[in-house]
Amino acid sequence: xxxxxxxxxxxxxxxxxxxFCSLFSVLTLGAREYSPTCIxxxxxxxxxxxxxxxxxxxxxPLLVPQQMKQADFLxxxxxxxxxxxxxxxxxxxxxxxxxxxxxxxxxxxxxYWRFRSVSKSGENMAWSPTYSFTIxxxxxxxxxxxxxxxxxxxVGNSPRLYCFLEDDLKKSRSxxxxxxxxxxxxxxxxxxxxxxxATDTLVSNHVSAMVVQCEKLHTAYTLLQRDxxxxxxxxxxxxxxxxxxxxxxxxxxxYAGDLAYxxxxxxxxxxxxFSVKEREQMEQLMERIxxxxxxxxxxxxxNHIFDNHLWQFTFRRLLxxxxxxxxxxxxxxxxxxxxxxxxTCRAPATGFNRDGIWMNGTCYFSANAVSLYYIPSxxxxxxGADFLQHPWYREVGKAMVYSWPPLSRSVGFGDGHEQMNDxxxxxxxxxxxxxxxxxxxxxxxxxxxxxxxYEMDDEMRLxxxxxxxxxKPIAAxxxxxxxxxxFRDTGEMIANSSMKDYRNNLCLSxxxxxFGSGSHTHSAQNAFNLHYRxxxxxxxxxxxxxxxxxxxxxxxxxxxxxxxxxxxxxxQPFTTRAYGNIVRAFSGEHISYALGDASNxxxxxxxxxxxxxxxxxxxxxxxxxxxxxxxxxxxxxRHIFLLHPDKIVIYDEMEAKKPVRWDWLLxxxxxxxxxxQTCKLVTRNEEKQFxxxxxxxxxxxxxxxxxxxxxxxxxxxxxxxGEVFTNSWHLxxxxxxxxxNRILTIIQVQPDGKQAVGIxxxxxxxxxxxxxxxxxxxxxxxxxxxxxxxTNQAVFGYxxxxxxxxxxxYRPVDKTASLLFDKIDGSWQIQxxxxxxxxxxGSNR
Length: 845
Fold this sequence. Notes:
This protein has 845 residues and is α+β, with helices and mostly antiparallel strands. It has 3 domains: 8-30 and 482-714 and 724-833, Beta-galactosidase, Chain A, domain 5 (Distorted Sandwich); 45-139, Immunoglobulins (Immunoglobulin-like, Sandwich), CATH 2.60.40; 175-350, Glycosyltransferase, CATH 1.50.10. It contains 17 helices and 34 strands. Strands 14, 15, 16, 19, 20, 21, 22, 23, 24 and 25 form a 10-stranded antiparallel β-sheet that branches. α9 (308-324) packs across α10, α11 (369-383) runs parallel beside α13 and α13 (426-439) packs across α14 (442-450). It is globular and about 85 Å long. It starts with 7 loop residues before the first strand and ends in a 12-residue tail after the last strand. InterPro entries: Chondroitin_lyas, Hepar_II_III_C, HepII_N, Ig-like_fold. The chain crosses the membrane at residues 12-31. Keywords: Membrane, Transmembrane, Transmembrane helix.
């Protein structure tokens, strides 16, 4: 597992062999000692960075809340001198947005910054208070050139939309007929040629279909240079131009982006085929769209934690449009500069994410894949810098493989988790192919060797056919491929029994995110999913059709739809305030582990206008009856393990200010067989031929119920993607009310021909095959957990002042630490870890 914290390895000889002891000096704040209102503000209220912020990257962007901009422009000053003297001081030009990138590596030490508002007439307002932050040597570095470099490259450069492919284009044309996608390209081109809107009286209603046809035609024309394709592109626009485009249509960001790109792509490709009047009409319409969205973007996008619609398509489409119009429109020039600065300050994936995983839900990575390929390719060409060296891009190949393994359903969280695809989506395959070709990423190369569906993709086909000469690495997983990966910034841990044996892989995914809930993410802090042979054993439930229907609000993104807890029937609200955090994790050969803290997640109701409006629209309240409201919860920490190869252990610690009912949730695609006396839960998957046995242990009594009904069933009239609705089974273990509770869960998943072993209990001691688990379930005593294996000698300890490693006593540095003795990175090691607090980007209060 890649570890960002500094660590040291001490070699010591113990009992005849060498043990490497890695002691991590991570902050030891407990869950209740560190509870800011939120980690990431939904809409920025706090200037960033300040002294209590730990920057994610060097250089850190300077961000100012939109409401603190008091005039037309903002001007920034940055310096190592508190009085802003000396040669380290940088003063920006006044800009109409609320961000500034230094575009240079900042030397270690304290940096000071401030800003002021400036009017169009040049009147300067007073400087803001001075803020400070610290740069340390361990902060990852990623620096981008200033926009001046971009500006010089753009001038005189033509064509522009795919300028980064021009050097290879001529070579590729000479070999195009032998390319494996040639016939698919021809077929797609014919589909574009078949489009006919000659008799349609309102062509502007068909822009979304037209842009798909345009993309196919553009690819064919660029590669083959046959006039028939370009003429058809021009015809599409000629059908469109007489059709009025309303302001209401432009307010739809997807529509506006599609329309802008349709015009920009055709304008550049077919320029000489249009009359002067037609070009003027196209220019006016493109500029109208840019002007409209400039006011929505400037100040807003850099301050919103993640405006998913605008980032998915609209941002790229408007970037492309402003690039095409750069010489002809001041509005376009300004927007293109803004877009460059926005990407360097807040992208990819929020800018506060170095994990490679998609914080807005695994499925919704696909909606961003084309932008994630196109924009760094364009900016790399315009600047000469490698934008794929950003830490997020360096990890995304691994993240794609773990969050949606080959020949499997998605194991991730968020909207679209229920996708019935038994393998990753086509566009994920296309992005992985791009990444493997451009960076040599071995995970992506392996991924696409199993799933070559990228050949079906139209949007990135031009890239693949032009860059076909570039070589991909050998399609094999790295030899040091970890059993588990901790995605620290986004708050997920994913563990596999064997990724290489992906057809029979047992995959555990665990979610506790500092980003909280909202957008395409769900109220699922401390939730887990478990997949075997590519299908869910236990997983999140419900169906995604839109943001606002009652099923979505109460039976899909609500906490009751996930494998976590309800407190007196109340879940986590839809807000970044409802955050979690994975505070510890290990990846050993025999034990994979994570500790999630969701103590702050059950914090009332959503305050976001969108969610408030959605509840009103459905005539629903965020009430206790509907599972929303304040709770007296003070502690919810979930320890979760994959004991390789086939056992899951969960140890839950819960506390509240007053007695509450603890509702422990588990969801299955098939019905549970329940033995309420022993709290044993059995499910059987006939198609994939396996059985899962889960057993709960606690000092408190519980009542176990199940239902195959949703609180609100999906409305079949809202099904627009060919959804097939099947009922899942929702199990609730309701524990006797109390201020505290501890629950131990042991899960065994076995293929046909093998049986789960019986669990032998003696007080707090549980024997499960070769594994011995000692879990303190008495809430009057400190929580502790001690796991050993008599065959492989692996050991885990938590809350123990002393434990045995190879029959010899060992004293942890701190008894509240989590300790692992296991084979890690090829050698037996002892690792100890205390809590890692999340990196704030908002207020520390």
